[in-house]
Amino acid sequence: MNGSLVGSYVVPVHPHPLLVPEQNEGWGRIRAAFDEARDAIKESGADLLIIYSTTWPSIIGHQIQADPNPQWTLVDQDFHDLGSMDYSFNIDAEFAEAWNAANHNRGLQSRTVAYHGFPIDVGSVVALKLLNPDNAIPAVIVSSNVYANRSETTVLAKACLDVIKKTGRKAVAVTAMSMSNRMFTEFIDPSDDRIHSLKDDEWNRKVLEFLEEGRLEDVAQLSRTIHQQIRVQKVVTFKPMWWLSAMNGNRNNLTGRVLAYEALHGAGGAVVQLDPTSTGMGDKEYDEDDVEYYRGERNVLDAEEHSTESDEPLTPQTGPALWEPPESQGAVNSKAAPKPVGMYPHARQVGDLLYLSGVGPRQPGTNAIPGGPIRDDDGNPVEYDIKAQTRAVVENIARILEEAGSSMDKIVDVTSFLVDMDRDFAGYNEVWAETLGHYGPTRTTLAIRALPTPIAVEMKVIAKI
Amino acid sequence: MTELAPTLMAKGSIVAGCLAPHPPHLVYAENPPQNEPTSEGGWEQLRWGYERLRESLSNIDHDVLVLLSPHWQTYVGTHFLGIPHFEGLSVDPVFPNLFRYNYDMNIDVELSQAIHDKAKGSGLAVKMMENPDFRVDYGTITTGHMVNPAFDKPLVVISSNRSTHYYSVEVMQEMMMELGRVTREAIEESGKKAVILASNSLSHRHFTTESEVPEDMSKEHIASHAMHLWDMRIIDYMRTGQAQRILDEMPEFTEQAIAESDGGGLTWLLSTLSVPNYPAILHGYGTIIGTGNAIVEWPCYAHEGDAQ
Ligand SMILES: [Fe+2]
Fold first, then answer.
1. Considering only the top CATH level, what class is B5-302?
2. What ipTM was reported for this prediction?
3. Residue A306 belongs to some domain of the structure
4. A71 and which of A88, A371, A444, A445 could share a cystine (Cβ 3.0–4.6 Å)?
5. A234, B209: Cβ pair inside 8 Å?
6. Which residue of B has its CA nearest to A81?
7. How far does Cα A421 stand from its chain's mean position?
8. Dihedrals φ, ψ of A408, to 5°?
9. What is the mean predicted confidence (pLDDT) over A431-445?
10. B77 vs A185: CB contact, 8 Å cut-off?
11. Do A123 and A196 fall into the same domain?
12. A53, A226, B258 from B250: Cα distances, Å
């Protein structure tokens, strides 16, 4: 199947265009732009609306709405006098679950939520009520994690794309967000609304100029600067642009249109359409790291037992030397995989088959072992986490396959080696079920006496290319 | 609501002021009938602390609880719940697995309006919240539950203006000192006896993972040593009657401990108590997914006039 993103939109989060568009001409123009976007989405034949909302903050990773039909009456915390917002949405729970699983595969903390009465945030409610009023297109909503950095937010998008591609969806991505988000801190007459300051207005116009030129990745790379300049600190940062740009393949040659830009109680509200069609504009000058898997700051609970933070890698002081992998015919070597412990390549291609050398959990660059080594430098056994090790093996496999132009779903056969079957089989098997198990390769698991480095698990993989 | 007509009554007073944090984990761990999820307990140090606070308050005659919650976040002014009764289901947007609570509470609209009017008179932007569909925030409900699970006393519920982030801690403190002063005045004029509740944690760096069993206490500890030091420093000031020093150090504390005092509750509380110079009672301290939480009571009834 050939799923893809067929369009992207940036929309504001305030309830004014939904509840009282008639009270201010600018609010009316935002409403008209929402209507235009609604019609364009319909015409695009999209079969999925994905909302990334800055008014849904989360702490434990990202949350994805998975209640098939959430219903409630929302009242804004500030603008409660503008009226109530009844909602009843059509959520694609199956997609939500698949996205959640894809997040886990890429190392993200993530969960779905499906609870009666869950408070869907104002940004999502405004977007879905105006862009999809008859619920014709199923939707998913994802939160904005307050602690997430760029790599985590980028990987969130890539996991989403994994599912879009796999399920053949025609998806539209929407970020519910303000441009400048400083509102007036006093009550104003609707007719007096304007952008809070000239400085905010100028920055907004610059950002919109970039977007109109389709330079989404440039805006994403300026996110931190934009946040510092025109955003109230500790209100969700300008991270939606990271997500949206990654959803679009981190490109600068989209086709952009600003449908409206107006003040909403002082904040900058814009409706922007970004078409994936390439313009003549040159593509990106891509200078931030492109991240495929997330492995940051996610082990706080276990931090005391064994740190997997990269600034203090558990590099074994002893053990075999590391080799530069040889460039034999058909060899595939990846900088994103750990260096081999002998003179062999990471993988070798024969016809349309790819044979991988045994893959362990060691981290490229640092050589650290997620979950900890199985023995210390003196050879004494130490406590380790088989699940973390297995997960790291799977991630290394994914990186090597990708470098070779293959992917996880093309794995044919796996032979796994465990140094302690009794202790580790269950944990290994659990991670298998969460990851490789989804793709259905055949598998053989063997207990062996030792591996050359202090690791507990290694896998030998054959994949199609 | 109140048993006595406020006219011709003696001067009202604040009988106790409390720091009463609101992590929904505490309600979850209590397994009350109002909450849908069930647990095997957890966070006992804090729950026993709340038990001691409830015991202490049960010995102090009071008519109303006046509460400021950092989870009713308003950017445009300070708001007050302005209709007499609220009920419904509250689901925590961050921890929906722990908190889905059926609430039912009464509001002392008269006192809310009186505080609102005085605040307006002193130049603060204020608004009464009169939309019947409004859902009460989970911070208010959690603190309300932990202090008075029967919800048989009316509340005044005040929103948290986000002035710390729009301006600075200093501006927030100016506004909250004023709001505290008018809150006290309005209570005194109302003839009612009030308990003040600031619903916030101290240090506020969360873990970003949750253990499989959320109430697994083997996983619970402070997020970092620096956070612990800050919490102990602030608690020490509370226990030794040095409220002014808390206010003085609020900018550093709020920034370095990412403290939930950013919401203004603690400053407002200390202002309603006229910046107390008598020791507070520490009923409990503990961490919740890494954040520092203290349950503290200033027994004002025993110190009337002391701090003026
Ligand atoms: Fe909180």
1. alpha beta
2. 0.92
3. no
4. A88
5. no
6. B131
7. 34
8. -60, -35
9. 92
10. yes
11. yes
12. 32, 28, 11
